[in-house]
Design goal:
Blueprint: H1 3-7, H2 19-28, H3 31-41, H4 44-47, E1 50-59, E2 72-80, E3 85-92, H5 102-116
Antiparallel strand pairs: 1-2, 2-3
Length: about 120
Amino acid sequence: MSWLADCAIIPLMTDIVNPHDHFFKELFTHKENAVDFVRHYLPAPVVKLFDLTTLEICKDSFVDTALQELMSDLLYKVSLHDGQSAYIYLLFDHKSYEDTLVSLQLLGYMEWGRESG
């Protein structure tokens, strides 16, 4: 059997428009990855408030359909050590280049959400 015949059985991923955002969303739907990210990238005083064993995904996406090709998001619910609940919202926008104006772009996304929601 030729190598071409072997390759023909592998499905092509032609329906994935933005593979980086899909990758991040898939990665962070696994609880252990989300907990690890929160532990390492949120400020330590904030992380100390969370009972990370209770972390759970709440909703698939809040991103407006017009922006779904640009970004992915995830919302988590977590219990605090004082018995209350909190939410952690992650917004992923993969950049293939260094973007010095990314803060303004994120502000624009938040404004878009307020106007369309």
